[in-house]
Each structure stands twice: as C-alpha cells, then as structure tokens.
C-alpha cells in the first residue's frame, strides 16, 4: 500500500549456515514511536525502502542526552550482507559534549563491528572498540577489543555516575571446543562515594572464563577491586551456573562509610561468601544471601 515498505526480519533458531528464515513485516514509512524503559525515546522517524535489498535510508531519534541517526541496508538473499552506520552526539547545551560512531558490516552470519566515542572539548576522553558478532552461533560475541581513556559516564546518560575511566576489555573465542576468556581492567581517576554519584574504586580487574558449549556456566577466575583512598580493597573468585552465582571474597580493611556516607563507620576484614539468585534477569535479583566471617 502507499507509504509502506517491507523490512526483513531474520531468524535462525537451528544455527544452520545459510538457512536463515526471512519473515517480512510491513513498516510505515513515516514516524516510528519506541519506548525504552530506562529512558524514553523522545522522537523518532524511519524511512524504509523496498527492493533487491532492504534499506532504512534514514533513522533518527532523541534518547535521554543523545541525538542518534543512522542508516542500514541488508541484502534480500543469502549471505544477507549487512551495512549499518550510526552516529550519536550529545544534545545541544551539554556541559561536556561528545560524539560517537558505530559501523557494522559483513554477512549476517559474521559481522565486524567498529565503534568510537570522543569529545572535542576533552580530546583525551575516548572509547574505541572492535568486535566480531556471530548472531546465530552458540557464543554470539566471538571477539571484543575495547579501550577507554578518561571516560565520563555522567556525560552519556542521566543518573550515571561521574567517572574518569581508563582501561580495556577483551573477549577471545577460538571455536566451540576451546574455552572463552573475558578480561576487564579499569582505573578510575575520579573515585568517590555512591551518595556523591561517583564510583568508589580506583582500580578494577576481572577475569572470566567459560565454554561455548556450556553457556550457562561462567567461572570468575579473579576479581580485584582497589577501593577509594583509605577504603580498603576486595579480591576473590567465584562461579556462575544457571540462575545462581557464588562469590568467595576477601575483605582487606574495608571501610563502608568511605563508600557511602549512609553506611556505618567500621573497618572490615575477613572472608565473605555471597550467593546471588535470579541472574537470568540481572535487573531483578530473586535473593541475595551473604555469609561472612569478619574481623573488625
């Protein structure tokens, strides 16, 4: 019908190469309204086009503190070559303006992603990343290499803490029969208490491992947190299986009042076993059980 176009939605539940099923839906070539629970999309438009390839020639919307625009094309036939470009920038009048770009290209089976974020007023504040995404694979995020320098989360979204994060994140997979390893190493040059809308640590190191054939199981090989000045440090390891995780933590001179002014003034040391449930829905934990042996 007039003003309508067909957009392909791809689905491959059996992970069979070149067997993606194509389900066509009709999309109005006018305004597109979307609601995101954390921050509403304030305004959005999309202009899809039909043809030998499925194309969204223009997509634009405002989200929280960002203006976003982009375009995308995907071939009608296998291997469904995708070409996506998106740009985002801070809204007018932002105290610390920023600009970001995301590209995704390749056959739908294996996509190469590149992303970068920077600020004209703070040239040293950057985020760069490259990833390989395999949407139908047992472990979709095949590889990730990301680095950040002096990143302020508060400039990106409402309610986020003020930070100066530097470090890197890496994920490496080598096939279905090889283990997956994920590493995160961050420093924070602007630590502070939770009640000050800061993150109360100066350094964080996390080392995870898993197996593509056992996606419900992840091992926390190492967790090390250097808390804000004088607040102590935490280290430990753990295991995440299904909807539950257990962490064995060691507290070294931890002073809760320096993490949040609402916490009691004390110094904690010893071991803590933390059990978490309901992890498939990480925003809602069914239960948290803490067993501790503390000295302080």
Key terms for this structure?
296 residues, mainly beta, 16-stranded antiparallel β-sheet, 18 strands, 0% helix, flat, disordered N terminus
Q: Explain this structure to me?
A:
By secondary structure, the protein is mostly beta strands. It is 0% helix and 58% strand.
Mean of the pLDDT scores?
81
Q: Report the count of strand segments.
A: 18
- Content-based structural category: mainly beta
Number of helices, counting only DSSP H or I runs of 4 residues or more: 0
Give the overall shape. flat
Residue share in helices? Answer: under 10%
Q: Main beta sheet: strand number and arrangement?
A: 16 strands, antiparallel
For the CA atoms, what is the radius of gyration? 22 Å
Order of helices and strands: EEEEEEEEEEEEEEEEEE
Strand order of the largest sheet: 3-4-5-6-7-8-9-10-11-12-13-14-15-16-17-18
Low-confidence stretches: 1-38, 281-287
- Report how far the terminal alpha carbons are from each other: 73 Å
Fraction in beta strands? over 45%
Show the helix and strand layout.
Layout: E1 4-11, E2 21-28, E3 41-49, E4 53-63, E5 66-75, E6 81-90, E7 99-107, E8 111-118, E9 126-133, E10 141-151, E11 165-172, E12 180-188, E13 201-211, E14 214-227, E15 233-241, E16 244-254, E17 268-277, E18 288-295
Antiparallel strand pairs: 1-2, 3-4, 4-5, 5-6, 6-7, 7-8, 8-9, 9-10, 10-11, 11-12, 12-13, 13-14, 14-15, 15-16, 16-17, 17-18
């Amino acid at each position: 019908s007039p003003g309508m176009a067909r957009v392909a939605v791809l689905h491959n539940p059996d992970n069979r190469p070149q067997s993606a099923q194509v389900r066509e839906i009709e999309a109005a070539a006018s305004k597109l309204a979307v609601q995101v629970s954390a921050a509403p999309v304030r305004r959005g438009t999309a202009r899809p086009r039909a043809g030998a390839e499925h194309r969204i020639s223009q997509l634009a919307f405002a989200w929280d503190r960002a203006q976003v625009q982009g375009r995308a094309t995907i071939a009608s036939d296998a291997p469904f070559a995708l070409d996506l470009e998106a740009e985002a920038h801070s809204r007018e009048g932002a105290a610390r303006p920023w600009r970001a770009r995301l590209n995704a290209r390749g056959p739908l089976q294996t996509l190469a992603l590149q992303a970068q974020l920077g600020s004209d007023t703070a040239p040293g504040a950057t985020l760069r990343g490259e990833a390989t995404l395999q949407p139908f694979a047992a472990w979709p995020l095949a590889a990730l290499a990301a680095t950040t320098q002096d990143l302020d989360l508060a400039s990106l979204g409402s309610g986020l803490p003020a930070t100066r994060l530097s470090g890197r994140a890496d994920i490496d997979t080598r096939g279905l029969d090889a283990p997956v390893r994920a590493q995160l190493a961050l420093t924070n040059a602007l630590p502070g208490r939770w009640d000050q809308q800061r993150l109360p640590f100066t350094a964080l190191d996390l080392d995870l491992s898993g197996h593509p054939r056992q996606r419900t199981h992840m091992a926390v090989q190492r967790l090390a947190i250097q808390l804000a000045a004088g607040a102590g440090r935490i280290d430990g390891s753990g295991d995440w299986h299904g909807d539950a995780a257990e962490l064995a933590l060691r507290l070294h001179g931890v002073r809760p009042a320096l993490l949040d002014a609402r916490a009691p003034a004390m110094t904690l040391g010893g071991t803590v076993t933390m059990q978490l449930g309901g992890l498939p829905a990480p925003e809602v934990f069914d239960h948290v059980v803490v067993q501790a042996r503390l000295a302080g």
